[in-house]
Amino acid sequence: MFRAKEFANLAGVTVRTLHHYDRLGLLKPRRTDCGYRLYRESDLERLEQIVALKFLGLPLKEIRELLDAAAPELPAALRMQRSALEEKRRLLDRAIGAIREAEAIVASGRPAGAAILKKIIEVIEMQTNNDWMKKYASEAAQTKMDARKGEWSPELQERVSKQWTELIAEVRSAMSAGEDPASAKAQALAARWKELVEGFTKGDPDVTQAVSNVWKDRANWPEHAKEQAQPFQITPQMWQFIHSAMNCAK
Fold first, then answer.
1. DSSP 156-176
2. Which residues, including other chains, have CB under 8 Å from residue 15's CB and lie 6 or more apart?
3. Which of 27, 40, 159, 246 is most buried, most CB within 10 Å of its CB?
């Protein structure tokens, strides 16, 4: 049996970390009659699992649930986290490649063209611009969205943005013409709207709720996000029209 300080030295962590893990229910030591924490060598294995999963980027709450749950859940979580890390590596590789290309051009005496610089900015923005959205997503939703980032290339982003822009323009035109939400035209527009949303959420309730939370708080978005959303101009009246059309379809 080890006191907290002894166990912390053995494990290579701080006593404060052990206390924090105890409060979260991640690593529960025994207690002496005087209330001192006591750890066994078997606790070291669980601590090593905690540290490894934390290093991979999993939230502590999710780590606790994984370690306390049945074993089959852990491989699935590791696959999702691996996918998220692979996507980060893919984006970094693209950014590094774009920078190397620009370096080679400059070294040859030629100016780095706008297309090269745009590519660098585009890749870096994909990694940074969505950080502000994390506060709207639960840990489960964030993990799922991170795992899907590999599917969301700049080319796909451009295609989907074009589809949204066209659809919003058609919805706006239908509203101006006084289209009934129960009409066949409105139903078709609502179906396309739903298809585009589910193309991102995959019908997952956690991700769907995160997207809903983001749009409900659009008045408080950072300026760069408001500028990016400006071409879409989705008004409350437009939301109401689409929701009414969807309800009529039900």
1. HHHHHHHHHHHHHHHHHHHHH
2. 4, 5, 8
3. 27
CB 2 within 8 A of CB 10: yes
Strand partners, 3: 38
Enumerate helices (H) and strands (E) in the chain, giving the number of each.
12, 3
List the structure tokens of 113.
């063209």
pLDDT digits 0-9 by tens, 84-131? 677 667 767 777 777 787 778 777 877 666 666 666 666 665 555 556
Of 63, 55, 78, 56, the residue nearest 25 (C-alpha): 63
What per-residue confidence (pLDDT) applies to 73? 60
Cα 54 to its chain centre, rounded Å, is: 17
Chain segment 13-62, per-residue pLDDT in tens: 888 888 988 888 888 888 888 888 899 888 888 888 888 888 777 778 77
**Strand, helix or coil at 2?**
strand
CATH number of the 2-68 domain: 1.10.1660.10
Q: In the chain, what percentage of residues exceed pLDDT 90? A: 10
In this prediction, residue 230 carries a pLDDT of: 66
58, 52 Cβ separation under 8 angstroms: no
Distance CA 161, CA 155 (A): 10
Provide the CB-side half-sphere exposure for 217 (13 A, CA).
14
Element (H, E) at 38: strand 37-39
